[in-house]
Amino acid sequence: MAVAPQGVDFARAVRGERITSVERRGKYAVLCLSSGRRLVTSLRMTGRLVVLRPGEPPFPYTYVELTFADRSRLAFADVRQFGRMRLVEPGEPWDAALGPEPLDGDFTPDRFIGMLSGRPTPVKVFLLDQRRLAGIGNIYACEALWNAGIRPGKPAGSLSKPAIRRLHAALVDVLNRAVELRGSTVDDYVDADGIKGGFQNVLSVYGRAGKPCLRCGARIVRTVIAQRGTWWCRTCQK
Ligand SMILES: [Zn+2]
């Protein structure tokens, strides 16, 4: 767990602030503060934001605890300590290295075609690269590629325009459904209210090695692409 700026500076810096809204950018939760500053939070593998009622005992493995005027608290906890919380000044381009949001209106199929053009990298590696597109994790990349019928190792630049349009639609659909179902709990993710996600219950291909493909009946295989487990169907993903 890393907090920036550290220690006393951090505590002093956020004193008297009000959280005006909570947004998402890529894999980051962004707590917008009344001063225009932001608390940019990355949960990584096991991080949690937990809302605690007044008088509730501290949450285990809490590294940051914000206390509100009504004595309720927001805890940022992380057993494995990979999470990050950073205070960002107004106008600071903290997300300059992040690619566009797949759910934004300006991420059009034509723009996606332009982004993939000429790129020799495997399409799955491209999808996971947060500098190209923001917010797509391993589960969503596997699911979108299966939905679109595209082989994960296929060079991004070799996809046909119809295939890219199918992939674009699949990404938007998978991410929209995941947001609607409050994310995916494969290990231990829960949201700020302690509620598990629901998307893990509707997975088509992720984690289904050896089981029949829901589209063609062939066995789902697991291979490794860029050090990440990759589940796909050799028969209907071309
Ligand atoms: Zn299949």
Proportion of strand residues: 15-25%
Q: Which molecules other than protein and nucleic acid are bound?
A: zinc ion
Mean pLDDT across all amino acids: 92
Our measurement of the CA-to-CA distance between the termini, rounded to an integer number of angstroms, reads: 41 Å
What string gives the helices and strands in order? EHEEEEEEEHHHHEE
Q: Structural class of the secondary elements?
A: alpha+beta
Strand ordering within the main sheet:
1-8-4-3-2
Number of helical regions? 5
Largest sheet: 5 strands, mixed
Tally of strands: 10
As a whole number of angstroms, the C-alpha radius of gyration is 20 Å
Overall morphology:
globular
Q: Stretches where pLDDT falls below 50 for ≥5 residues?
A: none
The portion of residues assigned to helices is 10-25%
